[in-house]
Each structure stands twice: as C-alpha cells, then as structure tokens.
Amino acid sequence: MRTAAQRRIGAVTRLLRTAGPALRRQHSSAPAGPMRAVQVWDVGPAETALALSSTVGVPTPGPGQVLVRNALSGVNFHDTYTRSGLYPREPGFTVGCEGGGEVVAVADDLGEAGPQVGERVVYYCEGSYAEYSAVPAAMTAAVPQALSLEAATALTVQGLTAHYLTRSTAVLSADDDVIVTAAAGGTGKLVVQMAKMAGARVLGLVSTEAKADIAAAHGCDDTLIYRQPGQQGCEDFSGFAREWSRDGAGVSVVYDSIGKATAAASLASLRPRGTCVFFVSQTRPPLPARPSVLALIPLLCMLRRATPRARRSRSPPSRWPWAAPLDYRTAARTLFLRPYLAHFCPVFSRFFAVFPVLTPGFQKVAPKDSGPVP
After folding, report:
1. CA distances in angstroms from 107 to 60, 66, 100, 116, listed in the order given
2. Span 309-314, mean pLDDT?
3. What are the φ/ψ torsions at residue 305 (nearest 5 degrees)?
4. In what order do the strands lie in the sheet with 177-181?
5. What was the pLDDT predicted at 262?
6. What pLDDT is stored for residue 15 in this prediction?
7. pTM, to two decimals
8. Model confidence over 184-199: pLDDT tens digits?
9. Domain 173-322 belongs to what architecture?
10. Which residues are CB-neighbours of 301 under 8 A, at least 6 positions away?
C-alpha cells in the first residue's frame, strides 16, 4: 500500500512526463525577431563573399533539433572551402561549422534524455556564424561544469578530428612510429598530444624553426623542417623518416594534412602495410587521380572516412572501425573527460565571440601561423 507522499510523487512524475515538451517551450528564451548572421550569396574571396546581415530570421528547431544561442563560433579551414565555393552550397548559406552556447529551445519530439533548455553545449553543424543556430540534438555535446565553454568549443572540430585519427582511423600503441605533418598547427598539435598519450613515438614535420619549437613543446620526440624559407614545394623527407624509425623499415602511420606537396614523401615513408591518412589537404589533391598512376603505389588502399551523423548507419562491418559513422556525442564525452583533458592543452586562439564581430582576422582566407585565427 503506497503512502500519500508516494502517491503525490507518482502524480508529479506522470505530469512531468506528459508535460515536459510544453514546459520546455514555456521556458524557452528564443527571440521572436530577426538575428544577425554572416552569410554568403556569391562565393569568392572573403572580402567580397562574406556579408553581415541583420535581417535573418531566427530558425525554428525542427524534429530532433535544438536552438542554440551562440556565444562562440570556431574558425576552420572548412569555412574557407564553403565560402570560396570549393564545397558547393546553396546561395545565402550561413558560414561556420562549429559553435558553443546555451540551448534556448528544443523540438517537441525530444525526450528528457536530450539537451535541455539552459544547458551549455557545443556542436558540429553548419551555420554557426550567427546569433542562433538550429542544430540536430545528436550533433550536440553537453559541456561539463568543470570545463569552460571556450575550451570545449576550441576542441570541437579539431579535437574530434584528432580523436578519430588516433583512436579509430589508426589505433596507435607504444610500438608505433608516427609522422605528423603541420605538427605546429591547430589540429596537428592535438594529434601529436593524443599520439603521445597512446605511447607512440612522434616525428613532427614543420616549416620553420619557430614552429619546430612549438611542436616540440607539445610532445614531438623529434622535428624536421621539410621546407626552407622561400622554397616552392617540400623536400623529400622519406629517407630521413625511414632512418628515424626504430627498425629502419619506415613508420607505421603518417598523418598528412598538407596533401599534394607532401603526398609522395608521406607514402614513401611508410613501412610495409603502413597507413597514410590524408585529411584537410591544404595543397589538394593529395594523390593523382589517374588509376594508372595510383597502380604504381604498392599496397595502396584508399578509404573514405565516415563523417559524424545524427542517425545510425546500416550495419557497417564491425572489424573495420573506420567504416562506422562517428558517434559525435560519445566521442565528445570522452574528449571532455577531465583526466583525459589533463594530458593536453587545447588551442584557444581559434574562435571568436559571435557578435559584435566582423573583425579583420575574420576576413582572412586561412590561418598562416600555428592554428586558425580569431
């Protein structure tokens, strides 16, 4: 026989279950008027393509979505690709692919397990250069109280990229010798630190003495300057890489974010059955497109990484970790664990407060130093 107190608790619980969506809408702080956003109507150089509009309607979260009031937005190479037209999008799109802020409204179909109004989140989704963004709930991650929103936003795209590179694309261990190109860059520094966490030995490739110092400070066992000042292209570092490897046979993994300029040397640095991962590719394309040329590369296996998705894939082979779509929320929770964070420092100079902005740094085509610019 239940007591009166237990019956009252049961009644309140049933009320919350049935009225949860309505209560969340009631406490929503989403504005009714227009918002400001940085949009692109005609792709091209940043000076002419980026347009700050003050008349964009605040998006309404659709099924499975939440509305985030942005406090920060990341600046990434991806943004320059969409702005320039390399990645085609419909005219009038809002730039940006990562952000951090507060949830101000949620869709009716989201349960209590999803993001809640007032919760701090970061997300990986197009349209972050705006005051508000409608984001799939599956592409958000809650920010722990012990972690600042700035640190979490700085880790969203680059941190998760480094995570999948070192934890699923190639699962590193203490037996591995690894090369990281652009090791002083935003993603490069995180890849180096995560590779060291796994026990790997790391050779960082950089373009200047100053960047060599940065790469060494972030954990590289050795560094190599692969391009001299004023030099076009890159030197062939494969011979040095093979000598640097512990058995002289070559390295286990190369993480190449440069592309065409370093692709041949990266492949030649590998030991038999080694892995070369091309990502970002600043000097695209990383490999010649002709099959007759690719056929000359022994044991070449080309894979397309699975991108983060809001829904589950159809039964990818479990023996291939790179075949499964990235579980964004699970990976972010791992990345934001306090013991995990204690091992590396994020890149804090790669985001800007959303408004008021349109700063000179925001106009730059791409970062030129050791990470994206604010």
Report:
1. 9, 6, 19, 10
2. 38
3. -65, 145
4. 222-225, 201-206, 177-181, 251-256, 270-278
5. 87
6. 43
7. 0.75
8. 988 899 999 999 999 9
9. 3-Layer(aba) Sandwich (3.40)
10. none
Residue for token pair 């049933």:
14
For tokens 């890149």, name the residue.
347
pLDDT digits (tens, 9 = 90+) for 109-149: 887 878 999 999 999 999 999 999 999 998 999 999 888 88
Q: Which residue bears the tokens 């009031």?
A: 69
C-alpha–C-alpha distance, residues 204 and 225, integer Å: 9
Name residue 351's amino acid.
F
In the chain, what are the domain boundaries? 25-155+350-363, 173-322
Q: Mark out the alpha helices in the chain (DSSP H runs).
A: 4-26, 46-49, 77-84, 149-154, 157-164, 186-197, 209-217, 238-244, 260-268, 291-294, 328-335, 338-341
48, with CB counted inside 10 A (0-12, 13-18, 19+), is exposed
- List, for residues 55-110, the tens digit of each pLDDT value: 999 999 999 999 999 999 888 878 888 898 988 999 999 999 999 999 999 998 88
- Are the C-beta atoms of residues 330 and 142 closer than 8 Å to each other? no
Superfamily in which the 25-155+350-363 domain is placed by CATH: Medium-chain alcohol dehydrogenases, catalytic domain (3.90.180.10)
Alpha helices by DSSP H, listed for 206-362, are 209-217, 238-244, 260-268, 291-294, 328-335, 338-341
Query: Cα–Cα–Cα angle for 271, 170, 100, nearest 5°?
Result: 140
* Domain 25-155+350-363 matches domain 173-322 at the CATH topology level: no
259: left (phi over 0), alpha (psi -120 to 50) or beta: left
Mean pLDDT computed over 288-303: 53
pLDDT surpassing 80 at residue 160: yes
Q: Kindly list the distances between the CA atom of residue 367 and the CA atoms of 65, 79, 156, 188, 356, in Å, as whole numbers in the listed order.
A: 32, 12, 18, 13, 21
Name the more confident of 298 and 276.
276
Annotate 62-101 with b (16+ C-beta within 10 A) or e (fewer).
eebbbbbbbbbbbbbbbbbbbbbeeeeeeeebbbbbbbbb
